[in-house]
Each structure stands twice: as C-alpha cells, then as structure tokens.
Write a structure and sequence with these properties.
- With about 375 residues, the protein is α/β, with parallel strands linked by helices.
- The chain has a single domain, classed as Rossmann fold (3-Layer(aba) Sandwich).
- Helices cover about 35% and strands about 25% of the residues.
- α1 packs across α9, α4 packs parallel to α6 and α5 packs across α6.
Length: about 375
C-alpha cells in the first residue's frame, strides 16, 4: 500500500501539464482584480524570449526585478488560477508589470516597507519553475491581504520531477547568493523572515550555517524568524547542520506532516531513515530534537492538500508566520515547544496579518 501511494505521488508530480513561460506575458490590468508586487532575486539564467522568463540554467550573477501580478476576482484560496490560453487578468493570474532593478534599487525598495516591519522572503523547493514560484508567492501574499512587498529568492530548479539530483546541486550552487541577499538586507538595516519550502529549506539552513561559520552574526541577528515548511532534510543532517550554527533570535519553526507523500518518496530515493518534514510530534525523539536544537515543531497535517501529495499544505499556511512568531502572546509556552494546530482551516484566509482568535495553537508540551 505504501509503495502504491508513493507511485501515485510520482504520477501526480509528473502527469499534470506545467505552466510555461507564456504565462508570464504582460497583459492589461483588469479593474476588478487585486495586484501584488513581488521583488525577485534569482540566479537563474535569463531566457531569450519576450516574456521575461528564466531557465533552469545557473547564472554567476544575481538578477533583480520587481514583478506585479494580478489576481482574478474569482480567486479561491489557496489555488492558483493558471491561464488555460493567453493570460487574462479578469480570469487568471497574470503579470501586468515588470521592471529590472539594480542591486542598489532592489535593497532600497525593501526599505520602503510599512512600520519598519520585517520583509518576508520565500525560498521555493524542488521541482519549481520560475513562473510557478512567482505565482505561488503571489497567491500566498494575496490571500494574506498583506500590504508589504514580499521577496522571492528563486534558485535554478529544473522544474522537473526527474531532476531531483540536479536540483540538489542547484540548491548548493545558490547558497552564496542567498547569503549575499541576506547580507545586503542586513547592511541596510532590514530585518527578514525567511519561509523556505522542501529542498529550499535545506538551502536556507545551509545558508544560515554558512553565515555562522564565517562569523556573520550581524546577518544572523537580522533574521527575525526562519520557517521550514515540509523540509526535505534528513533528520540526522539537520541535527549536524544546527550543531555548528549559532541560534537565531527566535526558535526555528518546522512545519511537519507524517503523511507527506513527496517526502516519503524523497526518503526512499535518498535511503534516509526520516526527513525533518515528517517528524511525529508524539515521538519522544522529536521532543528531544526540538529541545536540543531550539525548534518549534508544528503539525499541519489537518490542512487540506492541494494536489494530493500532502506536500503543498504550506500554501495555505505559509504566510501565517506572524501568528507562529507571536504564539507566546496567544498561548504562553515557556521556552521552546511543540505545537499542534487546531482550527487551522480558518487561518487559510488570514495569513500575514491577523493575530486574532482564528489562530489557536495548543501546546503538547513545554519546558
């Protein structure tokens, strides 16, 4: 049965038609649509087309740009309404604005946020194209009703279910560039909250490890929160990574689900005994890991899955990191703790902004 589920997961990852670069074609705005502006830092190679797209090629320099995405009036969270033909801002996600930025103007743009709040940085996972990562962040930001401009750190994933090994190399290739972006933001006195998904979580942890080993405590201090959503990281490797990494100012949040089929497949392919994204909050070893490594481990398995792999639940929860960060005000827990989320379905429409009663976190244990 387990093998059958894993085969089904692989089918889900490969069978569906993927959105191509034409989905990025510039279109006219629609008056009833909502818009989201996204800052992008990517080390992909730019494509030679009219759509402003990027390939899976690895660039030796970072490209900076600002992209304005239109969300159709009929949008249903946490879906992405992909165009079935030419993009149409009245019916689908669509790009209505795009401009290239310099490194300096990119950093200056991050400083133009409201109330000196931290900027949110999304690091996508394995098997993502540029357009998929861009529209996923637009979806999360739109559903959150956030006013600030989010940042996409886009690394050169193959955007293919068969490109797992190539993606692992591409994530390693991107470590210096993510560290570079975080260092620039820190130098501009910009605080950040990093949301990293799947293999992007491995990239994020490797980056903070690298910053720690090179003595950049100033940059680490600017990272207000690190959230690892369904992290595709071997548990033993995560423990080793964090053993030489300075503690961030707040515990690292790990969003887990035991029924994540994509991570189960990854574990089989890698010969791993377990990934951090599948941690069982009822297991004493998970409690020990959380205590030792300054983690907050959150079970999100009650959230609905978008594509059946149970690997995408972050899309409806990812932007709720302010509630996770402010968990102590909502439900006091002394020190590092492990959480189960109740009533999470009501949080789907309230990410990024509302600290209200719709977010209820029940501690399983605490120090």
């Amino acid at each position: 049965m387990v093998r059958f589920k894993l085969l089904c997961c692989l089918f889900l990852l490969t069978a569906c038609a993927r959105p191509g670069p034409s989905t990025l074609a510039l279109v006219e705005p629609f008056s009833g649509a909502k818009t989201v502006s996204i800052l992008v830092a990517t080390n992909r190679e730019a494509a030679n087309d009219d759509h402003g797209s990027f390939t899976a090629g690895r660039s030796d320099k970072l490209h900076y740009l600002e992209v304005t995405v239109s969300i159709p009036p009929g949008h249903k969270p946490p879906e992405i309404e992909w165009p079935t033909g030419a993009p149409d801002a009245a019916r689908s996600f669509a790009v209505i604005g795009r401009k290239e930025l310099t490194r300096i103007s990119f950093v200056e743009r991050t400083r133009a946020r409201r109330n000196d709040t931290p900027v949110g940085i999304f690091v996508h996972g394995y098997n993502y194209s540029y357009q998929e990562a861009l529209f996923r962040l637009a979806q999360m930001s739109a559903d959150s009703a956030a006013d600030d401009v989010p940042i996409l750190f886009d690394w050169p994933s193959q955007g293919s279910a068969t490109g797992y090994v190539a993606d692992r190399d591409a994530a390693a290739f991107a470590r210096d560039d993510l560290a570079f972006v975080l260092t620039d933001l820190s130098g501009a006195k910009v605080r950040s909250i990093v949301m990293a998904h799947s293999m992007g979580a491995w990239l994020a942890v490797e980056t903070v490890r690298q910053l720690s080993l090179t003595g950049r405590e100033d940059v680490l201090a600017s990272i207000e929160q690190l959230v690892l959503a369904a992290p595709d990281i071997d548990v033993d490797l995560l423990r080793k990574q964090l053993s030489v990494t300075a503690n961030l100012q707040n515990p690292i949040i790990v969003l887990t689900a035991k029924d994540d089929l994509a991570l189960a497949l990854s574990r089989r392919l890698a010969g791993s005994t377990g990934t951090a994204g599948e941690l069982d909050i009822n297991d004493s070893r998970t409690r020990e890991l959380a205590l030792q490594e300054n983690l907050q481990i959150v079970d999100i398995s009650n959230l609905p899955s978008i594509n059946g792999s149970n690997h995408d639940r972050f899309a409806s929860l990812a932007a709720t990191y302010p509630q996770l960060r402010n968990e102590r005000q909502l439900n006091p827990v002394a020190g590092t703790g492990m959480l189960v989320l109740n009533g999470v379905r009501s949080a789907v429409n309230a990410p990024f902004r509302s600290f209200g009663k719709q977010w209820i976190a029940a501690p399983v244990w605490s120090q």
